[in-house]
């Protein structure tokens, strides 16, 4: 290691010389710096002296520290030797005193006995006066002087407990002396129980007591707090000594809260004053009484009761929780009973809305003390769901029954001899829509009291029931018509009530829209909406059809006279038809839009179709040009009559339908047979749904078309069929031609086709 140190010193020296050479070289780079060599030498000498001085100071300081450390270590060594010597002396003394300590056992026993005797002397006065103190305490309890009674009781218990403790310390196995003390103080436990009863009675009447005599309640709380303090002391002593007096810990504080909880529960359970048999509104009354009691009691707790309890009891929140739990238990009991539909609504409305509203737990005087949003639900969600399902089931059954009764009542009205009532606009109606939607409205108002989601469910239920009801309504309308057809004299006001049935459909539509706007925030269409709309349209259109059937039953005889010899000679069939139609439509004016407009259009279509059917049936064949002219002019005149009548009834254009009669008349009126093809072609271009059998029938009625002419017209039209738009209402499509005519037409068409092929 010496060689290593020498090597390091040599290396360090060389590095120092190299560094110095470089430093000097740096200083003397220019010739003018040679003049300052002496100045540089003195400056470096000063630096060297300074560094050497600092090194000497540092080394001296370290040497002083080492010297001090060595001195302290020497002193510590001397102290350790002294301590070692002292420990040896103590060990020798302890060995010599063992026998002495064992000889002091009698002294120890004497000390314990002295302590017991001192305790006995201290409690001697109380021991001899126990019967007297017991009697005084009993009187104080009876006089409701609870604080003084408790003070006496504590004196008695203290004397008993001290004696028992000393006896336990002296001989914990001596049960006979313990029993002797217990027997002597046996009345003390009875006093404690009697005082506790008084405390619980005060707590049970705490809501009344805090108003009349709050000091009494304060005294009760002070007594309980004292007992809690003694309990803690005794429990701590038991951990140290294993001894605890009889009856401890009393745990009166826990018992106090149990009593208060029972008091609150009893108060809530005692709110039912009547039963369902005595009063149908029993549940509403019960819930209202409960609301009032809970609100009043909690306000008393906030304003008065809180001041009687220590702050760490958190009195208001504790009572708030007690009342909440008691109410929750009560409503669960109510929910488990067989409640009627209206009672379910009352209960759920109260639970979901009233309970947390400003009328109860959310009251302004209470909201500053607690957050109702932190409360657990009064009823579990599954119980609420079961109640709602039960209510929906009951409502479904009720609505079905009510709708059935409403329809039966309406059907009875259909048989009346007097006309149905009219609304403010003069349209016939029955009371059925008002009854049905008043019922729906009531159920939706009730559902809205619970919550918006349930209101939506009830609305869907109403629409579903409405859909089913309308199918029955439709069936009954058909049965009503069939009953009338068996005897057209009955029911006496058939037409008027059928009009009312049609109008009811429009009223139903309007009422459904109104209900949805009022009770559903969503504007989306449901499956039931489309089905209801479709059924209502079907009922209304069938009703209109039934009424038109009634009209045409009266027109049947007059329609058979059209295009006959009698008609040609001047009968008044069309005049009678127009008068009859106009007379019926005086009643039909009491049909609401849009059904009255549709009915007028359909009536015109059917009149025109029946007229054209009469032509196609070839009831007459014109014998000469004069008859054709006379018949054509009559047809044009009658077409104008129809046009005038239905324009008057509907205010709409009737030219196209009535024009079909006029167009056919022009075919008949033509005097030059060679132009017949052009006239027929014009007819076909106007009414492209006309078929070859129709043309054949027209030519047959005209009476002067030769076979060749017929074949040429039919053949040419077959080759140049005109297509017609689906938007154009067909006229000839549903008009059939008698069979004999069909056969003739088929034969002639075949001949014409064969000829054209040749």
UniProtKB/TrEMBL annotation:
Question: What parts of the sequence cross the membrane?
Answer: none
Protein's cellular compartments? Cell projection, Growth cone; Cytoplasm, Perinuclear region; Golgi apparatus; Midbody
Q: Which GO terms describe its cellular component?
A: exocyst; Golgi apparatus; growth cone; membrane; midbody; perinuclear region of cytoplasm
- In Gene Ontology terms, what is one molecular function of this protein? SNARE binding
Q: What sections of the sequence does the record tag as coiled-coil?
A: 615-642
Q: Relate the protein's function as given in its record.
A: Component of the exocyst complex involved in the docking of exocytic vesicles with fusion sites on the plasma membrane.
PANTHER family per the UniProt record, alphabetical? EXOCYST COMPLEX COMPONENT 3 (PTHR21292:SF13), EXOCYST COMPLEX COMPONENT SEC6-RELATED (PTHR21292)
Q: Indicate what this protein is called per its UniProt record.
A: Exocyst complex component 3
Q: What is the taxonomic lineage of the source species?
A: Eukaryota, Metazoa, Chordata, Craniata, Vertebrata
Encoding gene per record: exoc3
């Amino acid at each position: 290691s010496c060689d290593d140190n020498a090597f390091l010193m040599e290396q360090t020296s060389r590095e120092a010389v190299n560094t110095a050479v470089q430093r000097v070289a740096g200083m003397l780079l220019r010739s003018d710096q040679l003049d300052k060599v002496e100045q540089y030498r003195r400056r470096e000498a000063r630096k060297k002296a300074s560094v050497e001085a600092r090194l000497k100071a540092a080394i001296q300081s370290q040497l002083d520290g080492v010297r001090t450390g060595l001195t302290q270590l020497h002193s510590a060594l001397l102290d350790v030797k002294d301590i070692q010597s002292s420990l040896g002396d103590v060990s020798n003394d302890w060995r010599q005193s063992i026998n002495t300590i064992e000889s002091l056992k009698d002294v120890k026993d004497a000390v314990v006995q002295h302590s017991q005797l001192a305790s006995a002397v201290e409690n001697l006065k109380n021991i001899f006066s126990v019967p007297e103190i017991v009697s005084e305490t009993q009187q104080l309890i009876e006089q409701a002087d609870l604080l003084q009674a408790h003070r006496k009781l504590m004196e008695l218990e203290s004397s008993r407990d001290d004696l028992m403790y000393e006896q336990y310390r002296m001989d914990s196995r001596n049960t006979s002396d313990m029993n002797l003390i217990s027997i002597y103080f046996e009345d003390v436990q009875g006093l404690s129980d009697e005082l506790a009863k008084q405390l619980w009675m005060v707590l049970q009447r705490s809501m009344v007591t805090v108003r009349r005599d709050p000091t009494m309640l304060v005294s009760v709380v002070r007594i309980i707090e004292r007992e809690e303090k003694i309990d803690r002391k005794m429990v701590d002593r038991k951990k140290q000594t294993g001894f605890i007096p009889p009856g401890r810990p009393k745990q009166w504080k826990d018992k106090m809260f149990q009593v208060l909880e029972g008091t609150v529960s009893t108060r809530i359970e005692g709110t039912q004053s009547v039963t369902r048999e005595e009063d149908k509104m029993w549940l509403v009354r019960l819930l209202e009484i409960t609301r009032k009691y809970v609100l009043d009691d909690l306000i008393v707790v906030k304003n008065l009761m809180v001041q009687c309890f220590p702050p760490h009891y958190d009195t208001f929140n504790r009572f708030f929780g007690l009342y909440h739990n008691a109410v929750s238990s009560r409503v669960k009991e109510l929910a488990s009973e067989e409640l009627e539909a209206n009672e379910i609504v009352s209960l759920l409305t109260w639970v979901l809305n009233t309970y947390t509203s400003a009328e109860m737990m959310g009251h302004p005087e209470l909201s500053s003390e607690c957050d109702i949003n932190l409360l657990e639900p009064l009823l579990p969600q599954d119980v609420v769901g079961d109640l709602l399902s039960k209510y929906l089931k009951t409502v479904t059954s009720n609505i079905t029954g009510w709708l059935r009764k409403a329809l039966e009542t309406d059907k009875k009205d259909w048989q009346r001899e007097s006309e149905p009532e009219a609304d403010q606009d003069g349209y016939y109606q029955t009371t059925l829509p008002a009854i049905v939607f008043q019922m729906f409205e009531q159920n939706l108002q009730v559902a809205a009291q619970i919550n918006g989601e349930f209101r939506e469910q009830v609305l869907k239920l109403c629409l579903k029931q409405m859909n089913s009801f309308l199918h029955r309504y439709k069936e009954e309308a058909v049965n009503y018509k069939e009953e009338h057809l068996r005897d057209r004299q009955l029911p006496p006001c058939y037409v008027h009530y059928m009009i009312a049935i049609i109008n009811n459909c429009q009223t139903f539509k309007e009422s459904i829209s109104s209900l949805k706007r009022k009770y559903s925030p969503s504007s989306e269409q449901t499956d039931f909406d489309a089905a209801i709309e479709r059924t209502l349209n079907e009922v209304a259109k069938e009703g209109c059809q039934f009424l038109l059937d009634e009209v045409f039953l009266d027109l049947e005889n007059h329609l058979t006279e059209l295009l006959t010899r009698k008609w040609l000679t001047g009968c008044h069939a069309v005049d009678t038809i127009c008068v009859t139609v106009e007379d019926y439509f005086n009643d039909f004016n009491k049909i609401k839009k849009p059904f009255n407009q549709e009915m007028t259009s359909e009536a015109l279509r059917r009149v025109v179709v029946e007229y054209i059917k009469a032509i196609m049936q070839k009831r007459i064949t014109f014998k000469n040009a004069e008859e054709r002219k006379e018949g054509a002019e009559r047809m044009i005149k009658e077409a104008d009559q129809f046009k005038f009548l239905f324009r008057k009834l509907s205010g709409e254009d009737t030219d196209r339908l009535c024009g079909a009669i006029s167009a056919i008349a022009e075919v008949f009126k033509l005097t030059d047979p060679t132009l017949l093809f052009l006239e027929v072609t014009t007819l076909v271009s106007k009414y492209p749904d006309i078929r070859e059998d129709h043309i054949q029938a027209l030519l047959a009625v005209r009476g002067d078309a030769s076979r060749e002419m017929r074949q040429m017209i039919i053949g040419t039209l077959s080759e140049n069929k005109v297509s017609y738009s689906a938007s154009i209402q067909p006229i000839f499509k549903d008009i059939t031609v008698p069979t004999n005519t069909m056969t003739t037409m088929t034969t002639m068409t075949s001949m014409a086709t064969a000829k054209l092929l040749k």
